[in-house]
Predict the structure.
Amino acid sequence: MFDKIKLDNLKNEGVENVPMKERREFLKMGFALTGIFAGGTIFSAVSSIDRVFASSEEFASKYPYKPHYSMVIHQDRCIDCERCVEACAATNHVPHEGYRTRILQRDVPDAVGQKREFIPVLCNQCNLPQCTRVCPTKATYKDPQNGIVMMDIAKCIGCLTCQEGCPYNARYFNEEKHAVDKCNFCFDTRLSKGEKLTGCAAACPAQCRVFGDLSDQSSEVYRKVHQIEKAVWVLRPEAGTRPNVFYTKG
Amino acid sequence: MNKSITVIIAAALMSLALAGPGLAGDNTNHGGDIVYTKPVKSVLFSHKVHVEQKGLTCDMCHARSFEMEALKAQENPDFTMESLYQGNYCGACHNGTMAFASNTRCASCHTGVKGSTVAQGH
């Protein structure tokens, strides 16, 4: 019925340039497919493995980092107990006014059954991060080995351009360090010391956050991202940053 | 000037007097909202939903699953999801037959840290 479109070859024209007619068509399709409860923006309504950009063909066949750290979040398992937030703060000395990970709440009063959901968010450790691109001093950079978006606080001048560049609002200014601070998958505090999990993943009582190496085909994250039985999506895919934090339900 | 202030105060006192027994009445009638904070923050149990909307009577839960004293259950070491799946506490009804199963719709009962701060008026 339709010609096969190679989505990855298409140029991203930006959401603001979508003509009204197409927008309407898309919305209709989105409603038909998922109802009005599709999470995030309208463009995440059809998210599936092909549109989960980090695992599109080129990245799936050859993940660029080793280990390629990734997190799969089972959104429906989150109960906002915030043990992850507490563990993160204790592990990484996050001050009360800052955050490296947060839990968002979404209420849908008209929904059938459950009317509330919680959405854990953190730095998506994007493959094409905007924050590193806009940093004038290269204080934030993509680690060439493991792909974690790191901070070199000695180089940070506190201009906050990275905050503007980040589509996920994953950065805060740490007064004590006098530098921007962000999630680094607990690299300095846990992973580099031999721990296998981030502080948040280890603290979760509901196995909501699955952490692992996406380049290892035997890993749980690889299996969860590469199956087609359950929808897997990323937040704000239209930003085109190819996140390494994935979301699923069930 | 003084007179108008007196009138305002009198009106405020009257509205308090009217609202007061009403609120207290709701609480004594069916127990009000219970916010559990153990073992995780936090779960909201609404007597209003269970008694007024679902039509449960006191002894349906307070005979065996829960003592009358609020929050007594969360002091027990077996007040866990695993225990609910065995049919204890909320699991006596939330088993997929009488009410939605305890291992589904997590955030229906779990209102989280955000929910507990709202419930406590912060």
